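sry for the spam today, last one i promise. struct tokens for design, 74 residues
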């Protein structure tokens, strides 16, 4: 997840990123967005691309894994 937005008003991008670059470095691909400040905690992700990256060996962070599991249940 990459943090974007203004102070005290963050939103996050769900990205595929090489582990050798900096945390806020250039992502390979943006695969979703998360807005925790909205009333319904909007989380949009392209599950097709998530499945592709997981099949190539990518490992999601704990937070992203929880969001993905929540998205699969719905």
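last one done:
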């Amino acid at each position: 997840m990459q943090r974007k937005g203004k102070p005290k008003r963050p939103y996050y991008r769900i990205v595929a990123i090489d582990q050798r670059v900096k945390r806020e470095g250039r992502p390979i691909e943006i695969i979703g967005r998360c807005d925790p400040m909205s009333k319904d905690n909007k989380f949009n992700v392209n599950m097709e691309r998530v499945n592709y990256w997981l099949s190539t060996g990518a490992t999601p962070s704990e937070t992203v894994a929880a969001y993905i599991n929540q998205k699969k249940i719905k």
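DSSP finds two helices and four strands in the chain. ok im logging off now
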